[in-house]
Amino acid sequence: MVASRTFDENKVYVPQEDEGTAFFDDGREIELLHFVYGHPSISEIRGSPSRMLQAIDEYGRTKKYLMNVGDDKGKIVSELIAEVKPQTMVELGGYVGYSAILFGDAVRRAGGRRYYSLERNPEFAAVIMCLVELAGLSDVVKVIVGPSDASIKRLHAEGTLERIDLMFLDHYKPAYTTDLKLCEHLGLVRPGAVLAADNVIKPGNPPYLEYVRSSVKEKRDRYEKGEVNGGQDSGFGERWKNQYRSREGEEKLSTEFKGNPNLKYESKLIDSFEPTGVPDGIEITRCIAEES
After folding, report:
1. Is the dihedral of CA 219, 222, 226, 227 positive or negative?
2. What is the Cα–Cα distance from 221 to 64, expressed in whole angstroms?
């Protein structure tokens, strides 16, 4: 798995708005729907994940910035899907459905059964559902509306989600670690599972990287000392800690579970780019064993 070290400026998105200016949830997501359904190539877009992605990219390049995974980082995860061949893949944070369409299509091509897209914002979830259906992926992609931790607990309790083969983390950054520990606690993440975490360079996620790169001994030591799961949000700028506050209010992380410190991970960073051309990366983490 080799990432490109150069960025193709011909496919660059409109720049993300400066701090203090909204860069999502300001109507652009609904505007995207109108753009796609009013597109001159709508007949070619129907039933075609690739043409759908081209249309979303066109909007992001010519109209307004969209916080999508983008083509460069998307290729890293798509190659991972082809390698792992997950029967069940889960994404945390769906936004407008770019990743659900790109990775849902890859899961189907790899012989997988289900791609769960967990999105807390019901408006964004509605956009995902519309675009997924239009792209012809409703047989594979299932959109789950609600906070990620509550949705994970509910899917597990219902018996719908019994294990996660591959998980893509791209939601509220302080929740990466707490949601992973929740999945560990429930037995959803176990040896053989693979994690792909976005935005570990921009804006960065020091608590998550520390956790997945720690040895079993280091995790056990912190566990025995009474480490609080998600009790700190250090390492995140105010823009990212408060990203959803205006719409969702104060964030409440699922901190009651400390995870499974006995799981052994191998983790590495794959350098890449945001669709705006800004350097970023995907952290690929493989659960290789459970120590006794």
Report:
1. negative
2. 47
